[in-house]
Amino acid sequence: MGLNVVILAAGQGKRMHSSLPKVLHPLAGRPLLAHVIGTARALKPARICVVYGHGGEQVPAALAASDLRFAKQEPQLGTGHALQQALPELEAGGDVLVLYGDVPLISVATLTELIAGGGERVRLVTVKLSDPAGYGRIVRDAKGEIRAIVEQKDASEEQRRIAEINTGIMLLPGTRLAAWLGRLSNRNAQGEYYLTDVIAMAIADGVHVEARAPAAPWEVMGVNTKEQLAELERIHQRRTASGLLDAGVTLTDPARIDVRGELRCATDVRIDVNCVFEGEVELGAGVNIGANCVIRNTRIGAATRVEPFSFIDGAIISENCIIGPYARIRPGTELANDVHIGNFVEVKASTIGSGSKANHLAYIGDTSMGRDVNVGAGTITCNYDGADKHRTVIEDDVFIGSDTQLVAPVTVGRGSTIGAGSTITRDTPPGELTLSRTKQTSIANWKRPRKAAKRTK
Ligand code: UD1
Ligand code: CA
Fold first, then answer.
1. What is the distance between the terminal CA atoms of the chain, rounded to a whole angstrom?
2. Rounded to an integer, what distance in angstroms lies between the CA atom of residue 364 and that of residue 350?
3. Is the CB of 180 inside a 6 Å radius of any atom of ligand 1?
4. Which residues, in sequence order, are bridge partners of residue 190?
5. CA–CA distance, 149 with 446 (Å, rounded to integer)
6. Domain boundary residue among 220, 246, 275?
7. Last residue of a domain, one of 220, 250, 276
8. Domain of 301: which CATH number?
9. What SS3 state is found at 110?
10. pLDDT at residue 76 above 90?
11. Residue 455 has pLDDT above 80, yes or no
């Protein structure tokens, strides 16, 4: 019989003070719920069902995938009621693993251990807290066997002193669950159908209830506030950084890197402080990333150096290039080996051949550039005529003087030189010097205009 995973995500999350449903708030660039779904998938369950409610269709709309089922819970009458809504979506008879959409860092290792083995049993993930206030308490008998979970609001003075709490994550036997849920009542301090009441039912039915600890305490931390979200973000980032260090990446400060996606690094990569990596980023051997760079969905070849404050998005950069400082590389850019893109240079949807350089203050958009081209400071490809974008072709060995405008569509022929300050509107012949500027003249005895002197009365 397959495993069913149910992810409870119908609650409101009032304390986030946001119109976005709580489980859609991002952690490392992905919704909290997406982390839980990813972990659930790793267990290869027969079914994954998300119980949603608060925030309406935003939750299924944001996370729809062919392997997910969604059950709507409205109104939200408690965790037991939530699980009941999921039952029709589950594989009948399969064990049910309950996860919370707002507990994003639960690990595959902890869950694998929780679901291991077979037979009818209830397994709870519990932890001992120095301040257990607010949580359901694990009540044990004199022999140390679990007898029940009592919610904070229903607990006696004595029960409130119990340090062991219910994290909410539990494995329930598929053979029994529907019957237990059917017997839940809401006669309690909160008027809710508590999922936790099935524990006492399990004991009464002779089903063994056991507790397991998470592999690490942060795995069971929930997000109720922005403060907690920020705290979990730091824990997650610090772990990602540790993974990079373990793999041999040099991080100047593991507390000052953010990976929002997947960062793959070859050997001898160095990353200075305050860099953000988004989506899928791949860094080749010996790549050096300067401080304060943002790199998104990009592949960077071996020995390339990215100097500080560069923003690279959707690019393929080859080996031994020098990018930045202060470079902006936009989607659709492909740089061959040994390309230099310097400060305040923007490149968009362009290919640049090996050995070419644009070192200062330029805009290169919709351009096919050959090899060994030198682009002078202030050069601009005028790719947009107000209605359409046009391409600029710059062939091999071209030298473009500073402050040149290349009005696309236009081709700068192989080996040609463009005089500084030119506006090039027609294709240039290969090997020749082309310039388009008026001859320099000087006017002798010319006087600068002056303000007329104020007349005194
Ligand atoms: C619940 C547990 C408590 C445990 C605590 C851990 C119950 C009765 N109590 O408390 O023992 O210590 O979690 O955080 O189960 N949800 C729904 N529908 C609902 C109510 C909740 O989907 O009607 C979801 C929430 O979105 C959340 C999760 O269930 O992801 C837990 O809800 P929350 O209200 O935080 O749980 P508590 O009642 O505080
Ligand atoms: Ca809670």
1. 106
2. 7
3. no
4. none
5. 95
6. 220
7. 220
8. 2.160.10.10
9. helix
10. yes
11. no
Per residue in 252-263, pLDDT (tens digit) is: 999 999 999 999
Query: Is 63 strand, coil or helix?
Result: helix
Ligand 1 pocket residue status of 76, Cβ below 6 Å: yes
The predicted-structure confidence for 386-406, as pLDDT tens digits, reads as follows 999 999 999 999 999 999 999
Q: What is the pLDDT of residue 403?
A: 97
For 417-437, write each residue's pLDDT tens digit: 999 999 999 999 999 999 998
Q: Which atom of ligand 1 is nearest to the CA of 100?
A: 30
Of residues 81, 35, 48, the one with CA closest to residue 182: 81
Give yes or no: residues 53 and 149 share one domain. yes
Mean pLDDT of 104-132: 96
Residue 70 and residue 61 in contact, taking contact as beta carbons nearer than 8 Å: no
Q: How far does the centroid of ligand 1 lie from the alpha carbon of residue 135, in Å?
A: 9
- This prediction has a pTM of 0.93
Q: Say if strands 146-150 and 137-140 run parallel, antiparallel, or are unpaired.
A: antiparallel
Domain shared by 212 and 329, yes or no: no
Mutate to test the pocket of ligand 1, among 12, 25, 51, 79 (most ligand atoms within 8 A of CB): 79
Looking at the fold, whether 231 and 191 belong to one and the same domain comes out as: no
Give me the CATH number covering residue 142: 3.90.550.10
Amino acid identity for residue 64 in this structure: A
> Is 193 a pocket residue for ligand 1 (Cβ < 6 Å)?
no
The residue type of 370 is: G
Contact 398, 356 (CB under 8 A): no
- Strand 257-265 versus strand 275-283 pairing type: parallel
Q: Are residues 260 and 210 in the same domain?
A: no
Domain that holds residue 189: 4-220
Q: Cβ(126) to ligand 1 under 6 A? A: no
Distance 175 CA to ligand 2 centre (A): 28
Q: Which stretch of DSSP H or E encloses residue 238? A: helix 226-246
